[in-house]
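[User]
Protein folding is very new to me. Any chance you could explain this protein sequence and its structure tokens? I have pasted everything here:
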Amino acid sequence: FTVDDLNYLKMGGRLSAGAAFFGSMLSIKPVMHTSDEGKLVPVSKVRGRKASLKALIDKIAELGIEPSEQVMFICHADCEVEARAVAEEMKARYGVKEVYINYIGPVIGSHTGPNTMGLFFVGTQR
């Protein structure tokens, strides 16, 4: 998943104030996943919102097992237009037949903020 505003990670104690300040100044967007222990694990860092969404989609090619045969899910925090665009890109690039779009729950959303987006698919590793 990726977040749009680092200040929510800072307020939740998951990012230092300095990292949030400089990351926001440079428009750094982390791409992360949640470990088996429930910890946020950074996978990569990119500059800009479009690049962060592209990085999410690229993870399907890297980790997905037969993406064209899967039902995939997108969860978002108040960015449905972008979620639909990501779904269309997944269908175009990987032949995904079904993509369900839903909202991120309030607990996760309160820690990650608006415009958070996550992709869910079966992959080779977590």
The mean pLDDT is 93. The first strand starts at residue 28 and ends at 34. The first helix runs from residue 6 to 11.
